[in-house]
């Protein structure tokens, strides 16, 4: 990755956080108390924000990043308590009474949430949200007209030039537009600090890039302090001056974005960087961090990363390592950093290996063929004027035996609908689907034998591992049930179930557990094992890793790769994430508004897209450099 | 955007965030449990605890509470306490059968309607709508009255009348389960619909079912005692709370305890059942499980 084009003229002082801090958080500790039991959620959080600076709080789920933001704003949910100091303009926000805090929120510190739907009152038109906020800023403010004009100006500032948007209700807008209105409302009182909590996670990739670019430009023109909370390192690096890496409630590393990216000084940051699948090339095996994220409370008295760290030694668990200052305004909470620095640096550099060529595609015997499939979702029956929604407008594709094919597109492209048609959860309105010689256009019309054969040929992996396993049953029950359907018969179900678990990298002891006791990654492994139970030849994987943390995502992607090698199973990988797709598939179909706009070998499509939509998708994949946001889509 | 603090929904007994009983109400829930257990015990062993519920003593006649008769006697000289104790049986058995019967019938229909959809859903929904359009208590009184009354007849009619609300509840919950990925995964595996409904949908409705059993019981208890009060349930002279309430009304100035005791039992039993049901529902729901 070339970093020659880094923005050079950045204010060094600001970047180092040396200016007078606008916001100064020290020793923030958040605990919960439920049923008399205290649990640590975040401990020892320090953070400084200078005017005009963007800092990122990066962390996976359970890191406590959102709670940190909420604590700063005094918006912790009931049952959670914050200690420490949060200084803003000479006052400790944690000690302010609620009334004073409420006055301060919006006026001094603005907030943007993941889904602006939760911030915008659904009963108020978009313009009203901004007008109301303006009125609060200045009670003596001129008449109605002036408010309206100002609101329109504010909307224009966030790139909404169509004045009719002000008269629409939030639910009438797309996700991206809604987020823009949310940003305009959050900025209406010109706050000095803006806290953005995963502002683009709910958006499509192309919209995400636009929203981030907008946020960045607003921040720099207003010289606002911006705290960006994200799970995506690439976004943090491209947006922020400095980043704070949070893990299981502990701050592990602090530094400028460039420095941290080039030379991480904590094993966890290194792991995160390495497990990020590169969008530009395929690697044979992603470097995953083993294990799963610990609960903050369990690691409150030692290095939070110790349970997963390969450099762990006795001193690591002798107490919580403090954030130690290193050269270049950097800080790391690893006690052994001086000893292992060299090793970390080497691993980081080794990760920039050259691309692994995707093997030449031998023409495979076709396994599944989709021909000109259309799917129209009927409007409400009996209601005139409501037309059906066309999800698929004549899609054709082919999947060969043992081949891995991706269906790429944004929400609304119809990619999930097509996947569901393949496994019989939807029936196409017209067109044909043939799988392994069986006509699978309408599962309902098949004979029992044919249907059984199809079920054993195609299986599906769902996106959300938290809902794809029945919470009422043990893992063993789920797997045995699937095995009974499979071709192997019913002898020694337990043995086969243990084998399945082993295949997906889980111990047999998990058979007795309920899904609640498993982490997201482990659940997804079980879901994969369940699908494998019937020995399918094709697995339809609907965004199988998008709900997982980065460090776990790499493990699951590696598992997919390994299973394909071992079992020769074919994949239809449905995803919006091109970096993920690059790692696991041979061929790509790009779906846009229900039509395939481009298809071909993965390297060709991603390196040299021909269709403008594909090009836009490729450009939207987050990159760590600052050019990513300034570059044209 | 200034965010106003949202006023949480107020539940006097249960904490809105944890679902645990509020301070001071923990004892109340405990007492409710004890009371429910006591009534259940009396329903089974009542006749052994108090053998002389029907023993008349016309010579004594009506009397106020005393050591030998803690709640006094009624106009026929029968011991009120014994009658209240023995009356627990008809108060528990009928409603229990109603709740169970309505739950089985209504639940099965709800599961069928919710999972199968299509015409079975249509037919079942029409049936539910029809039953909801009828004034339940009135229909019960008329039907039981016309057919000549009787405890088990009343039970049968009430099963029919209260099953539609179970159908509606289970159908809605099933519809909500249906699009969940674990149900779809079971469909993709090709499991038969019956098995999916029984093994995958039903277990997840359990908290709901348990809560509705308790609430349904309280409703059935009130309905049964109302019918008895009107003389449509158990025969005259039976030690039954509804019947006793009707027959001892006139004694209110002679022996208030005889008139009030059966009524108090009805109210406290129904209220305890309601609270216990509420508490269980909270405990078993996702919110409670997160603890
Ligand atoms: S302190 Fe020890 S366990 Fe923690 S990251 Fe450093 S080497 Fe690993």
Describe the protein in words:
The complex is a heterodimer of chains A (633) and B (291). Chain A is an alpha/beta fold and 633 residues long. Among the domains of chain A are: 259-354, no CATH class; 402-426 and 446-630, P-loop containing nucleotide triphosphate hydrolases (Rossmann fold, 3-Layer(aba) Sandwich), CATH 3.40.50. Chain A has an eight-stranded mixed sheet, with helices on both faces. Chain A starts with 11 loop residues before the first helix and ends with a helix. By secondary structure, chain B is mainly α. Helix content of chain B is 69%, strand content 0%. Chain B is elongated, with a radius of gyration of 23 Å. The A-B interface holds A 34-35, 75, 78-79, 98, 102-103, 105-107, 110-111, 119, 129, 133, 136, 185-186, 188, 423-425, 451-452, 455, 458-460, 462-464, 467-473, 481-482, 485, 516, 527, 530, 534 and B 1-5, 8, 17-18, 20, 180-191, 199-200, 203-204, 206, 289, 291. Bound molecules: iron/sulfur cluster.
**Largest interface, per-chain counts?**
A-B, 46 and 28 residues
- Pairing-aware structural class of the strands and helices of chain B? mainly alpha
Query: What oligomeric state do the depicted chains represent?
Result: heterodimer
**Would you identify the regions of chain B where 5 or more consecutive residues have pLDDT less than 50?**
1-10, 287-291
Sheet of most strands of chain A: 8 strands, mixed
Which architecture of the largest domain in chain B does the CATH hierarchy give at level 2?
Answer: Orthogonal Bundle
Tell me the distance between the termini of chain A.
19 Å
* Cα Rg of chain B: 23 Å
Order of SSEs of chain B = HHHHHHHHHH
CATH architecture of the domain at 402-426 and 446-630 in chain A: 3-Layer(aba) Sandwich
Shape category of chain A: globular
| Portion in helices of chain A | 25-40%
């Amino acid at each position: 990755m070339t970093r020659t084009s880094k923005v050079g003229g950045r204010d060094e002082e600001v970047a180092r956080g040396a200016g007078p801090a606008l916001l100064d958080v020290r020793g923030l500790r958040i605990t919960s108390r439920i049923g008399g039991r205290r649990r640590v959620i975040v401990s020892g959080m320090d953070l400084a924000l200078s005017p005009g600076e963007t800092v990122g709080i990066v962390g996976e789920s359970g890191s406590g990043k959102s709670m940190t933001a909420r604590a700063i704003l005094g918006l912790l949910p009931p049952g959670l308590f914050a200690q420490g100091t949060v200084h803003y303009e000479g006052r400790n926000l944690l000690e302010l009474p609620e009334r004073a805090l409420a006055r301060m929120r919006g006026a001094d510190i603005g907030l943007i949430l993941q889904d602006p739907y939760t911030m915008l009152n659904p009963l108020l038109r978009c313009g009203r949200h901004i007008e109301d906020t303006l009125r609060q800023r200045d009670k003596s403010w001129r008449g109605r007209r002036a408010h309206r004009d100002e609101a329109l100006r504010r909307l224009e500032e966030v790139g909404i030039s169509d004045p009719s948007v002000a008269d629409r209700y939030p639910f009438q807008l797309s996700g991206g537009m809604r987020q823009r209105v949310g940003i305009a409302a959050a900025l209406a009182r010109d706050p000095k600090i803006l806290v953005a909590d995963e502002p683009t996670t709910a958006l499509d990739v192309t919209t995400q890039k636009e929203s981030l670019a907008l946020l960045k430009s607003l921040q720099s023109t207003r010289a606002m302090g911006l705290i960006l909370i994200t799970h995506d390192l690439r976004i943090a690096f491209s947006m922020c001056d400095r980043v704070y890496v949070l893990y299981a409630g502990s701050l592990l590393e602090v530094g400028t974005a460039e420095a941290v990216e080039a030379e991480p000084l904590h094993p966890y940051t290194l792991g995160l960087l390495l497990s990020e699948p590169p969008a530009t090339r395929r690697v044979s095996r992603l470097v995953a961090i083993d294990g799963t994220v610990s609960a903050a409370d369990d690691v409150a008295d030692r290095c939070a990363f110790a349970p997963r760290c390969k450099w762990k030694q006795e001193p690591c668990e002798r107490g919580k390592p403090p954030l130690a200052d290193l050269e270049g305004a950097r800080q790391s909470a690893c006690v052994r950093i001086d000893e292992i620095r060299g090793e970390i640096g080497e691993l980081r550099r080794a990760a920039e290996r050259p691309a692994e060529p995707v093997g030449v595609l031998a023409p495979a015997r076709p396994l599944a063929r989709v021909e000109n499939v259309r799917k129209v979702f009927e409007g409400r029956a009996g209601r005139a004027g409501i037309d059906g929604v066309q999800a698929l407008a004549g899609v054709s594709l082919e999947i060969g035996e043992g081949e891995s094919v991706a269906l790429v597109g944004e929400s609304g492209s119809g990619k999930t609908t097509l996947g569901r048609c393949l496994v019989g959860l939807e029936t196409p309105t017209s067109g044909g689907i043939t799988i392994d010689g069986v006509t699978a256009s309408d599962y309902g019309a098949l004979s029992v034998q044919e249907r059984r054969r199809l079920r054993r040929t195609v299986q599906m992996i769902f996106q959300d591992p938290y809902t794809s396993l029945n919470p009422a049953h043990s893992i063993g029950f789920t797997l045995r049930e699937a095995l009974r359907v499979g071709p192997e018969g019913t002898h020694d179900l337990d043995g086969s179930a243990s084998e399945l678990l082993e295949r997906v990298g889980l111990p047999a002891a998990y058979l007795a557990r309920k899904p609640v006791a498993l982490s997201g990654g482990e659940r997804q492994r079980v879901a994969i094992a369940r699908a494998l139970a019937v020995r399918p030849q094709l697995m339809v994987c609907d965004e199988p890793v998008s709900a997982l943390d980065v460090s776990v995502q790499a493990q699951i992607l590696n598992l997919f790769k390994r299973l394909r090698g071992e079992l020769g199973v074919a994949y239809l990988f449905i995803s919006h994430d091109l970096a993920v797709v690059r790692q696991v598939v041979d061929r790509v179909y790009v779906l846009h508004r229900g039509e395939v706009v481009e298809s071909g070998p993965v390297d060709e499509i991603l390196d040299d897209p021909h269709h403008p939509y594909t090009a836009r998708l490729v450009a939207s994949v987050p990159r760590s450099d600052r050019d990513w946001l300034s570059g044209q889509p | 955007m200034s965010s106003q603090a949202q006023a949480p929904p107020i539940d006097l007994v249960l904490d809105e965030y944890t679902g645990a009983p509020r301070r001071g109400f923990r004892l109340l829930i405990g007492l409710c449990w004890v009371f429910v257990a006591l009534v259940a015990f009396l329903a089974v062993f009542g006749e052994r605890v108090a053998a002389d519920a029907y023993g008349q003593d016309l010579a004594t006649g009506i009397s106020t509470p005393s050591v030998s008769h803690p709640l006094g006697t009624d106009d026929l000289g029968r011991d009120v306490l014994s009658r209240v104790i023995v009356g627990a049986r008809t108060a528990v058995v009928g409603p229990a059968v109603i709740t169970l019967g309505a739950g089985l019938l209504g639940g099965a229909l709800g599961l069928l309607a919710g999972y199968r959809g299509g015409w079975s859903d249509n037919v079942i929904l029409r049936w539910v709508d029809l039953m909801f359009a009828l004034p339940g208590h009135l229909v019960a009184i008329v039907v039981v009255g016309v057919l000549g009354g009787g405890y088990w007849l009343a039970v049968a009619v009430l099963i029919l009348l209260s099953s539609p609300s179970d159908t509606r509840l289970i159908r809605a919950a099933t519809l909500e389960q249906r699009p969940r990925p674990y149900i779809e995964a079971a469909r993709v595996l090709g499991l038969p619909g019956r098995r999916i409904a029984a093994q995958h949908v039903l277990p997840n409705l359990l908290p709901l079912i348990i809560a509705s059993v308790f609430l349904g019981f309280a409703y059935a208890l009130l309905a049964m005692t109302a019918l008895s009060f009107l003389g449509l349930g158990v025969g005259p002279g039976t030690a039954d709370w509804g019947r006793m309430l009707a027959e001892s009304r006139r004694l209110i100035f002679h022996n208030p305890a005889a008139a009030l005791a059966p009524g108090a039992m009805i109210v406290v039993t129904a209220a305890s059942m309601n609270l216990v049901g509420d508490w269980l529902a909270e405990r078993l729901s996702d919110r409670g499980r997160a603890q």
